[in-house]
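User:
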Amino acid sequence: MFNIATHMDFEGQGRAEKLSRVIITLFGAVGLIWGYIIQQFSQTVYILIAGVLLASILTIPPWPIYRRKPLNWQKPRPEPQVTAGGTETESAKKKKK
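Assistant: Predicted structure:
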Protein backbone atom coordinates (compact mmCIF):
# COMPACT_ATOMS: atom_id res chain seq x y z
CA MET A 1 0.00 0.00 0.00
CA PHE A 2 2.63 2.56 1.07
CA ASN A 3 6.20 2.68 -0.18
CA ILE A 4 8.02 3.80 2.96
CA ALA A 5 11.81 3.60 2.95
CA THR A 6 13.19 1.71 5.94
CA HIS A 7 16.93 1.96 5.37
CA MET A 8 19.87 4.35 5.66
CA ASP A 9 23.08 4.29 3.67
CA PHE A 10 26.44 3.94 5.40
CA GLU A 11 27.26 7.63 5.27
CA GLY A 12 23.79 8.43 6.59
CA GLN A 13 24.35 6.10 9.53
CA GLY A 14 27.59 7.91 10.34
CA ARG A 15 25.90 11.28 10.03
CA ALA A 16 23.06 10.17 12.32
CA GLU A 17 25.48 8.82 14.92
CA LYS A 18 27.56 12.00 14.92
CA LEU A 19 24.44 14.17 15.18
CA SER A 20 23.06 12.16 18.11
CA ARG A 21 26.37 12.40 19.97
CA VAL A 22 26.54 16.17 19.45
CA ILE A 23 22.95 16.72 20.59
CA ILE A 24 23.27 14.54 23.70
CA THR A 25 26.64 16.08 24.65
CA LEU A 26 25.31 19.61 24.16
CA PHE A 27 22.15 18.97 26.19
CA GLY A 28 24.20 17.20 28.87
CA ALA A 29 26.60 20.14 29.20
CA VAL A 30 23.80 22.71 29.26
CA GLY A 31 21.86 20.60 31.76
CA LEU A 32 24.89 20.24 34.00
CA ILE A 33 25.58 23.98 33.96
CA TRP A 34 21.92 24.90 34.51
CA GLY A 35 21.52 22.32 37.27
CA TYR A 36 24.64 23.65 39.00
CA ILE A 37 23.42 27.25 38.76
CA ILE A 38 20.02 26.50 40.32
CA GLN A 39 21.36 23.67 42.53
CA GLN A 40 18.83 21.13 41.23
CA PHE A 41 20.23 17.86 39.87
CA SER A 42 16.76 16.86 38.70
CA GLN A 43 16.83 19.73 36.19
CA THR A 44 20.08 18.33 34.79
CA VAL A 45 18.43 14.95 34.30
CA TYR A 46 15.32 16.46 32.71
CA ILE A 47 17.38 18.47 30.22
CA LEU A 48 19.46 15.38 29.39
CA ILE A 49 16.30 13.31 28.84
CA ALA A 50 14.97 16.05 26.54
CA GLY A 51 18.23 15.84 24.56
CA VAL A 52 17.97 12.07 24.25
CA LEU A 53 14.38 12.35 23.04
CA LEU A 54 15.29 15.03 20.50
CA ALA A 55 18.27 13.01 19.27
CA SER A 56 16.07 9.92 18.97
CA ILE A 57 13.43 11.75 16.94
CA LEU A 58 16.06 13.22 14.61
CA THR A 59 18.28 10.16 14.13
CA ILE A 60 16.33 6.89 14.51
CA PRO A 61 13.82 7.24 11.63
CA PRO A 62 15.39 6.90 8.17
CA TRP A 63 14.83 10.51 7.10
CA PRO A 64 15.76 11.39 3.49
CA ILE A 65 18.86 13.24 4.70
CA TYR A 66 20.30 9.83 5.70
CA ARG A 67 19.57 8.21 2.30
CA ARG A 68 21.47 10.48 -0.10
CA LYS A 69 24.14 7.99 -1.26
CA PRO A 70 22.65 4.50 -1.71
CA LEU A 71 24.87 1.53 -2.52
CA ASN A 72 24.97 0.26 -6.08
CA TRP A 73 24.85 -3.50 -5.73
CA GLN A 74 26.32 -5.83 -8.36
CA LYS A 75 23.99 -7.89 -10.49
CA PRO A 76 23.69 -11.53 -9.31
CA ARG A 77 25.49 -14.20 -11.31
CA PRO A 78 23.26 -16.65 -13.15
CA GLU A 79 22.86 -20.12 -11.66
CA PRO A 80 24.70 -22.94 -13.49
CA GLN A 81 22.42 -25.13 -15.61
CA VAL A 82 22.19 -28.72 -14.32
CA THR A 83 20.82 -31.54 -16.48
CA ALA A 84 18.47 -34.28 -15.29
CA GLY A 85 21.45 -36.61 -14.67
CA GLY A 86 22.94 -34.18 -12.18
CA THR A 87 25.82 -32.98 -14.40
CA GLU A 88 26.46 -29.44 -15.54
CA THR A 89 25.98 -28.51 -19.16
CA GLU A 90 28.93 -27.49 -21.36
CA SER A 91 27.92 -23.83 -21.30
CA ALA A 92 27.87 -23.85 -17.48
CA LYS A 93 31.35 -25.42 -17.37
CA LYS A 94 32.72 -22.79 -19.78
CA LYS A 95 31.34 -19.99 -17.62
CA LYS A 96 33.14 -21.37 -14.54
CA LYS A 97 36.55 -21.22 -16.26
